[in-house]
């Protein structure tokens, strides 16, 4: 098993160091330059969009609240701890940089997902994502199928195992690390049963409960995290110094070399905020809004909140406990930090938080895979096989090695991001044309509304059709009446 783990680590290090990190940096910087730093320039507009009231459906603020609650998961709790223990405090700095640059990538992919979305099975619902804009905008269905396979493998299988593993680790931590060889299989089987009840056979009660409890659990995590930070407020200057110093090699510590700090910071940053990975666009496409750029702005705020607020808080909690560097740690490191600062009760609460947010993510992971399998084929046997593999990954993930599970996630996640970034680089010109349309309407004092005739030359856009009255009057290109609604599609 250790040989397999070492082999996976070697592949990971070369893949991320020589291919993916340079591409992530280039894409983020290119999008930042081409958009004139949209992630900074339109910050006031992001908060204006969040305050918009809904007409018929979920408001932008409501959508942001839901997405923020689901973002507070293993990436924030276990991923940050892993980045610090393997990359040193300096990894946190590179997580920040990943967020600032990656926001531009998140903006582009969300705008494209909105533009090329398609009506769902139920009225007023939509589906879409990278597979759809690869097929429709690039005209390369084979690339869309490849991405659909990668996201199904990454989220449906590997990241489901990561969530299951994190839950098992925190449960074991709550039990005091006693000899509980039976625990991991029991946790895995229990999670598989809950997943079956939640998504396979239409019993939505558990899923509805998680939708209510996850925001509460996320809020609880924020509160106890802030409490730990406040208790160690005098240590914050020292921790910031360690973060900045470790990022550039000024304060070298075990496992904290600059290269390792960058590698771990970018990896864990992408896993946490998903900027440029191609997963968030699947959710972005489902939103109903009057202009695709609005969803791009909301997505950008989500990246900021996830990394600059939640991950930073977790980093301060972990660093306040002076963790052992150079050895892989995950949720158990964060749990120990909470126990040391507030007592064992805090660790038990964290276990409950991790269960709720991780299980909610497992449900989301399943749907990511399901929607992309439907893009590939409508075969019932293919869907049945997918469901069976998801259950196997749930059980094996709880029983697996923390190191192997996370390293496998790095490979599949990185490959998925590679394909998505290569696709949105040429398509970004379309996103920036929509951005120019949006800012032009704002300068005219309008609440931006988009229809596909506002940007000439767009092909294979299924939604965003002008109203009949706009078509007859010829006004559709000047001031459209609607965005993308179920009737317009």
How many separate helices?
Answer: 19
Mean pLDDT score: 80
Major beta sheet, strand line-up: 1-2
What is the overall silhouette? globular
CATH H-level name... which superfamily? Amino acid/polyamine transporter I
The tally of beta strands, per DSSP, is 2
Helix content: over 70%
Provide the gyration radius in Å: 22 Å
**Main sheet: strands, sense, barrel:** 2 strands, antiparallel
Question: Could you name the CATH topology?
Answer: Amino acid/polyamine transporter I
Q: From the coordinates shown, what is the CATH architecture?
A: Up-down Bundle
Percent range for β-strand residues: under 5%
Instruction: Write down the secondary-structure element order.
Output: HHHHHHEEHHHHHHHHHHHHH
Alpha-beta content class: mainly alpha
User: What is the distance, rounded to the nearest whole angstrom, between the alpha carbons of the first and last residues?
Assistant: 52 Å
CATH class: Mainly Alpha
3D architecture notes:
This protein has 489 residues and is mostly helical. It has one domain (2-448): Up-down Bundle (Amino acid/polyamine transporter I). The chain has 19 helices and 2 strands. It has a two-stranded antiparallel ribbon. It is globular and about 65 Å long.
């Amino acid at each position: 098993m250790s040989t397999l783990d070492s082999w996976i680590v070697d592949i990971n290090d070369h893949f991320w160091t020589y291919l993916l990190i340079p591409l992530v940096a280039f894409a983020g910087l290119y999008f930042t330059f081409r958009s004139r730093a949209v992630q900074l320039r339109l910050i006031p507009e992001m908060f204006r969009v969040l305050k918009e009231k809904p007409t018929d459906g979920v408001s932008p603020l409501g959508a942001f609240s839901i997405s923020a609650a689901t973002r507070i998961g293993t990436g924030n709790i276990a991923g940050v701890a892993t980045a610090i223990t393997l990359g040193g405090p300096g990894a946190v700095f590179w997580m920040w940089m990943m967020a600032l640059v990656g926001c531009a990538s998140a903006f582009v992919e969300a705008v494209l997902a909105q533009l090329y979305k398609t009506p769902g099975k139920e009225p007023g619902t939509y589906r879409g994502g990278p597979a759809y804009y690869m097929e429709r905008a690039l005209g390369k269905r084979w690339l869309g199928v490849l991405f659909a396979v990668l996201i199904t493998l990454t989220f449906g299988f590997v990241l489901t195992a990561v969530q299951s593993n994190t839950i098992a680790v925190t449960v074991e931590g709550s039990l005091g690390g006693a000899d509980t060889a039976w625990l991991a299989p029991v946790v895995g089987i229990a999670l598989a049963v809950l997943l079956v009840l939640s998504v396979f056979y239409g019993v939505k009660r558990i899923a509805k409960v998680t939708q209510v409890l996850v925001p509460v659990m996320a809020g609880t995590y924020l509160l106890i995290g802030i409490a730990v930070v406040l208790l160690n407020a005098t240590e914050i200057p020292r921790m910031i110094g360690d973060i900045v110093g470790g990022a550039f090699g000024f304060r070298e510590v075990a496992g904290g070399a600059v290269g390792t700090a960058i590698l771990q910071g970018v990896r864990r940053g992408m896993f946490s905020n998903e900027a440029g990975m191609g997963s968030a666009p699947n959710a972005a496409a489902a939103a109903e809004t009057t202009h695709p750029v609005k969803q791009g702005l909301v997505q950008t705020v989500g990246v900021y909140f996830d990394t600059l607020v939640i991950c930073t808080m977790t980093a301060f909690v972990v660093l306040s406990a002076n963790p052992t560097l150079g050895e892989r740690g995950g949720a158990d490191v964060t749990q120990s930090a909470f126990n040391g600062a507030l007592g064992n009760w805090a660790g038990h609460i964290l276990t409950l938080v991790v269960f709720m947010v991780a299980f909610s993510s497992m449900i989301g992971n399943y749907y990511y895979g399901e929607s992309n399998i439907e893009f590939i084929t409508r075969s019932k046997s293919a869907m049945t096989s997918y469901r069976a593999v998801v259950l196997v990954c749930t059980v094996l993930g709880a029983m697996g090695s923390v190191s192997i599970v996370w390293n496998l996630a790095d490979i599949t996640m990185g490959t998925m991001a590679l394909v998505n970034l290569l696709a949105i680089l040429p398509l970004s010109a379309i996103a920036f044309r929509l951005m120019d349309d949006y800012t032009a309407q704002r300068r005219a004092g309008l609440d931006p509304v988009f229809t596909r005739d506002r940007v000439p030359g767009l092909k294979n856009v299924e939604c965003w059709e002008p109203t009949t009255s706009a078509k007859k009057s010829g006004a559709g290109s000047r001031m459209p009446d609607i965005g993308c609604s179920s009737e317009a599609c």
